[in-house]
Amino acid sequence: MGKYFLLLGLHILLLLATSCKKDPHQETVNALDGLWTVDKTEYTDQKTDSIPLPQTGVFSFSACKIGQSGAAGPQCDGYYQLGNQPQVTYKFDAFDGPSPLIGQISWSIPPKNVYYSLETVWNITKRTDKEMAIEGYIGFNHLVNPQGNSPFVRVRIHLHR
C-alpha cells in the first residue's frame, strides 16, 4: 500500500513539474514590458545623408497573455514616438529569434499618415534588463520620390529603460 501512495505522489509531482513549463514566447513578450527610451539611431546598411534619422523617442510595450481567444498575429498594445512627431499606437507580438538573434518583434501595420513607419518585423539584436537594440526598416512617409514611394532604410535603434 505504501508503494502505491509513493507512485501516486511521484505521478502528481511529475504532472505539476511538466505543467509549470515556461513559454519562451511569453517570456520574450514579458521582457519587453515597459517604456524604452531611444539612445541613438544609426544606419546598418548604407548611410543616406539626405535622410536624417530620429535620435530621440520612446517605445512602449504592454505585455499581454499570448494566445488569448486563439488570436493570431500582433495582440499586445504599444506605441512609439520618434523625434518630435505624434505618438503612433500599434499592436505587437514578440518571440524568440533564430540564432544569433535574441528575438523578433512583429508590429501591426501603421496608419499611412504617420511621419515614420516601421516595417512589420524587426530583429532584437541585444537585450538585457536595462538595454535593448532593435533592427529593421523605417519608412520616411514624408519623403516621396517621383514614383510616389516613400524610402525605407535599415536602421538599428539603441534603447534603454
Summarize the structure.
The protein is of the alpha+beta class and 161 residues long. It has helices at residues 2-19, 24-32, and strands at 34-43, 57-61, 76-82, 88-96, 103-107, 116-118, 121-127, 131-140, 152-160.
Describe what this molecule looks like in 3D.
By secondary structure, the chain is of the alpha+beta class. The chain is 17% helix and 40% strand. It has 2 helices and 9 strands. The protein has an 8-stranded antiparallel β-barrel with strand order 1-2-3-4-5-7-8-9. Strand 7 and strand 8 form a beta hairpin. It is globular. About 4% of the residues have low confidence.
Helical content class: 10-25%
Strand order of the largest sheet: 1-2-3-4-5-7-8-9
According to DSSP, the number of beta strands is 9
**Average pLDDT value?**
77
Q: Structural class per helix/strand content?
A: alpha+beta
As a whole number of angstroms, the C-alpha radius of gyration is 21 Å
Describe the biggest sheet?
Answer: 8 strands, antiparallel, barrel
Topology pattern, helix = H, strand = E: HHEEEEEEEEE
Shape: globular
Amount of beta strand: 35-45%
For the termini, the CA-CA separation is: 57 Å
Helix count, DSSP H or I runs of 4 or more residues: 2
Low-pLDDT stretches: 14-19
What descriptive keywords fit this protein?
alpha+beta, 161 residues, 8-stranded antiparallel beta barrel, 17% helix
Which helices and strands, and how do they pair?
Blueprint: H1 2-19, H2 24-32, E1 34-43, E2 57-61, E3 76-82, E4 88-96, E5 103-107, E6 116-118, E7 121-127, E8 131-140, E9 152-160
